[in-house]
Amino acid sequence: MGLLTGASSFFGLDIGTTAVRVVQLRGSAPVKTLTRYAYVPVDSKLVLSDSKTDQQRLAQVIRELIEQSGMTTRNVAVGIPSQKVFTAVVDFDRLPPSELAKAIRYQADSLIPTPLEKSKMDWAIIGDSPKDKTKVEVLLSSVENDFIEQRLDMLESIGLEVIAFEPDNLALTRALIAGDSSQAQMVLDMGSRSSDLVVTVGGAPRLTRSIPTGAEAIVRSAAQNLNIDDQQARQFVFKFGLSRDKLEGRIYDAVTSTVDILTSEVDKSIKFFQSRYADTPVTRIVVTGGASALPEFPLYLANKFGIEVEIGNAWRNVSFSPDRQNEQLAVSNHFGVAAGLAERSE
Length: 346
Prior knowledge:
Elements: E1 2-3, E2 11-15, E3 19-26, E4 32-41, H1 44-48, H2 52-69, E5 75-80, E6 85-93, H3 97-111, E7 119-128, E8 135-144, H4 145-156, E9 161-167, H5 168-176, E10 184-190, E11 195-201, E12 204-211, H6 215-226, H7 230-240, H8 250-276, E13 282-289, H9 290-293, H10 297-305, E14 308-311, E15 318-319, H11 325-331, H12 336-342
Parallel strand pairs: 2-5, 4-15, 5-9, 10-13, 13-14
Antiparallel strand pairs: 1-9, 2-3, 3-4, 6-8, 7-8, 10-11, 11-12
Helix pairs in contact: 5-12, 6-7, 6-8
């Protein structure tokens, strides 16, 4: 949400629902050099729990990962799960910065879902309003203080210095989308329990949503419709995906109704975006997470929307030795948030 302290060296920390990931880069050029990255699977019950004991256990997992990966700094930029962040794009009159800040705070109570005194709020001007040229567009983000304080306490307890909190979806777009593109592009990141959707123009988010359908729901529908256990369903789903010619299309038939819950939300989001930005069509969907690992899903999206779909590369702005290319690209769909956090400029 904004730097808390200045730091020349730091790493990105993504505390996901099923894994914790870290990335450290060096250099200040647009393309930075990868120095270290690592991940460890975690039990989602641990990550989602508020209990003190579970928080301590999670802290221990993070500490061990940092030690084993050999991070050279204690400074860290931390992702905030999209479900914990409220984000909106709002039009405001063109005002000097100090007056705009006052106007935003004055209207904040009617814009954000939690009381202002219980929230950390951040904002940035992202451009001219497409609806009214006398106004500017402001990207507003807010997160509850309790969540930030709990995360801060946990990370400080293992000796880390948090230099920034940032919503996962902002980190994702930094890693996966070219900031100089004037086109509208969507990032779709399918997690285990939910999917993040961001539409950007010129690298700045114009629409962000968290959709409560993820890979687990697709696996569950395969298990129920094929009458098999979850483990076998997961293997089938991630081996055959939406292929109609594998296993006589039985996996496809078992999961398409759940997949279509997700694609209908994508459709609504595109339509909502176009209602505001009529002259800026969405030209590309960049998929990552489970959305890129599910065979034939990118093609399914492309056919459904008639839009170019590409598999996101978390290392797009990162250089590494050629002999590690296969290893890096194999895990790219898991590292979008951590890489984006590590790419923050001071």
